[in-house]
Structures are given as C-alpha cells and as structure tokens.
Design brief:
Length: 134
Amino acid sequence: MFDIIREMSNFRIKLKCYMVELYLNHLRDLLLPPGEPVLELEIKETSGHVVIQNCTEVEIVSVAQCEEIFNDGLSRRKTRQTNMNDASSRSHLVFSIIIDTANINTGVRNVGKLSFVDLAGSEKSSKTGVDKQG
C-alpha cells in the first residue's frame, strides 16, 4: 500500500488507523494512550460510513509505524489461557485503516476504510476449560 501511495504524486494522502475490541458486549479502544480518560465508544453511521465516536485515531506514515501501532494495540487485547491455547483471544478485534485522498489538480476528495477483523474463538467451553465469562 505504501509503495502505491508513493507513486500517486498528484494526490494528497493521509492514513489513520484505529483498533477496538468487543469483549462481553463492551467496545474498548485499544490505542488509547495510558493515563487518558476512557470515553464511551459509540458506533454511528455518517454519510454511508460507519464510524466509532470517541475512538483514538493515529496517523500512519510508514509500514514500520503501522506494525508498531498494531502490536501496541494487540498487547492490550483481552486474552486468557485455555486448555487449547496459551493466549486465547476472548474478544472480537477490528483494526481499520482510514485512507483520505485529495486530488491536487481537481480538489476531489475520497475517504475509504480498510478493516481487518479477528473474531473470538467459538470453541466449546467443555474443550477449553473456560466458563462463559472468560
């Protein structure tokens, strides 16, 4: 993606990302800096786009930075040891990259989003040894 962006010299392009998890029906911001107040996240639809209000969005300028942001968010994800996995994800995860482009010549602006989703495991609790709250 960054190689393609470098070749698009007639566009001004900004990339941002966010990362959230859904755990026990609670949406949690995984990129919220430590010490920042936790705000309630709200899913809304605006102009045909799904957005999460009050979610931390971080600007991305390189592949290395994107990987660092992703790994930082993963380190905050809810996991638990089970009989089947040492660090089983207990939540659904969404990592989204927002691509905001503007044509320098025409001024036409487009915004898109690429979302990566990891769903929590659906193993039977009898096999994992974890109760329904885990």
